[in-house]
Amino acid sequence: MSKKTLIIGSGLGALATALRLTSKGYEVTILEKYHRAGGRLNLLEKDGFTFDMGPSFFSMSYEFTELFKSCGVDNPLKLNELNPLYAVFFENRTIPFLIHKDLKKLEAEFAGIESNLAQKVEKYLNAAGKMFHDTEDIVIKQNFTSKFHYYTQLARVPWKHAPKMFRSMWTELEQNFESKEVKVIFSLVAFFLGSTPFQTPAVYSLLNYTELKHDGYWNVQGGMYKIVEKIKELLDARGVKFHFNTEIKSVETDSNGIKAFIDQNGKKWDADIYVANADAASFRGQVLQREKYSAKNLDAMEWTLSPFTIYLGIKGKLNNIHHHNYFLGENFKEYADSIFKTSVSPDKPYYYVNVSSKSNPACAPEGCENLFILCPVPDLRHKPDWSDSQQLADTIISDLSKRIGFDLHANTISKTILNPIDWQNQFNLYRGSGLGLAHGLNQIGGLRPANKDEKFNNLYYVGASTVPGTGLPIVVISSRLVTERIEQDHATV
Ligand SMILES: Cc1cc2nc3c(=O)[nH]c(=O)nc-3n(C[C@H](O)[C@H](O)[C@H](O)COP(=O)(O)OP(=O)(O)OC[C@H]3O[C@@H](n4cnc5c(N)ncnc54)[C@H](O)[C@@H]3O)c2cc1C
């Protein structure tokens, strides 16, 4: 019997789950509020330019290999390894630091700044790597049946890693490196979790291991949206139905459980199994009306920073900038301490810039370049008013123009700004939080909203705010975990 499955949302977690479920004989329908599949992994096409809307690279590329292999299809993605991984520009220093995986090259980059860097990094990454491999199967890739199960699994992690749970990533870096530059650069991974190195536990030094040693960083030939296009092609061929501009607003239940989910037009959608790819915490509050996830309780949780993103189509070629770049100021600690809670836009913002036309010329017209700028900002709980968006964008563009010696204002052909309100409204991101629930110790593993509903035994969750957490490869793992759960409960015959 083929189980009829309804997936709410079409982010990467949804698409990967649909691919896995259809491989096992499930019949899948996908509902999506936006007009196109992909969620945050989306596309912006404007004025002859193409931009990746959100993600621009990822680690743990083997999770995509596993996805396609386990579904019996050839991997349709062609990946480029980032080399160097990225460039970091500090204020008052015109030449950026290039971050290489090759430690001898990395050491040469920091000559005169950090002595014996290769040796220090090797030691630091060995410890981080042990942490990664000792937790990967026991904690990260696990379905937890209860909090007790989670704590039992945690107890199996070698005790030598325990201190890393109680000190911050910054403290860990201070114990391993001397120069401010190296500490700041290695701590940037904390922002990928949507937090800061001063709040992120040192266990996440494992991300330095995944970037610098384990698998590096990758992007996709033809742009990141190819991930969505290629999976969607496979799903279309398998008969998966997509319904766009369809937002689930409420649920109808009876004594047997969920009868149907109801969209904005009052249409009822029923199935045997439901998977919510909408945020696993706010969906429980806003759609299921659970008290534990009321607005008050959701606001009391820890959420990742919001994105403030600018998409610029530029006339001319930019030589003083790389594919992936970070532009930092001089007041790292004060900046990191204030960005979460401030209600005013920063006058000296820190930001990330991606120029995908450097490796994928089809993204921009001849002689032009496409720039994606991402500035992490407080979510809408702390800064609800974004009427200063234009001003913040101008500040960033002026700063970038000065630092790369190119007048971006005068050469702009296309400009789009998305502030946290836009991100919230487009993809139902709670209070505009870019990466979903944060990854503090009280919100991970068995303490994160589970991928199986507490009350309804045919409702599941996949995506950034359930287990294991945020980021493209992690969401692919999330799709594997939820599929295993569904299979355990409802295996087709
Ligand atoms: C600006 C930005 C940059 C990022 N950069 C990177 C990066 O470089 N590398 C990386 O690995 N990760 C990055 N991430 C994180 C990554 O994008 C996410 O972790 C991942 O895409 C989340 O996927 P998801 O499956 O949780 O689904 P989402 O992308 O959240 O998709 C969920 C979908 O559900 C839809 N939906 C929500 N509610 C409803 C409803 N009620 N009814 C119908 N549909 C609904 C939404 O519209 C959305 O399409 C970035 C995120 C952002 C915002």
Description of the molecule:
With 493 residues, this protein is α/β, with parallel strands linked by helices. Among the domains are: 4-42 and 222-300 and 437-490, 3-Layer(bba) Sandwich (FAD/NAD(P)-binding domain); 102-215, Guanine Nucleotide Dissociation Inhibitor, domain 1 (Orthogonal Bundle). 34% of the residues lie in helices and 19% in strands. It is built from 17 helices and 19 strands. The protein has a seven-stranded mixed beta sheet with strand order 7-6-15-16-17-14-18. Strand 10 and strand 11 form a beta hairpin. Helix 3 (103-109) packs across helix 4 and helix 7 (169-176) packs antiparallel against helix 8. The structure holds flavin-adenine dinucleotide. Flavin-adenine dinucleotide is lined by residues 8-14, 31-34, 39-41, 54-58, 247-248, 277-278, 307, 309, 374, 427-428, 434-435, 463-464, 470-472, 475.
Condensed summary:
This protein has about 500 residues and is α/β, with parallel strands linked by helices. About 35% of the residues lie in helices and about 20% in strands. Helix 1 (about 10-25) packs parallel to helix 11, helix 1 runs parallel beside helix 17 and helix 4 packs across helix 10.
Descriptors:
globular; 34% helix; 7-stranded mixed sheet; alpha/beta; Guanine Nucleotide Dissociation Inhibitor, domain 1; 493 residues; binds flavin-adenine dinucleotide; 17 helices
Uncertain ranges: none
**Name of the top-level CATH class of the domain at 4-42 and 222-300 and 437-490:** Alpha Beta
**CATH topology (level 3) name of the domain at 4-42 and 222-300 and 437-490:** FAD/NAD(P)-binding domain
Strand content: 15-25%
- Ligands present: flavin-adenine dinucleotide
Gyration radius from CA atoms, angstroms:
22 Å
What is the strand arrangement across the widest sheet? 7-6-15-16-17-14-18
| CATH H-level superfamily title of the domain at 4-42 and 222-300 and 437-490 | FAD/NAD(P)-binding domain
Strand tally, please?
A: 19
- Give the overall average pLDDT: 95
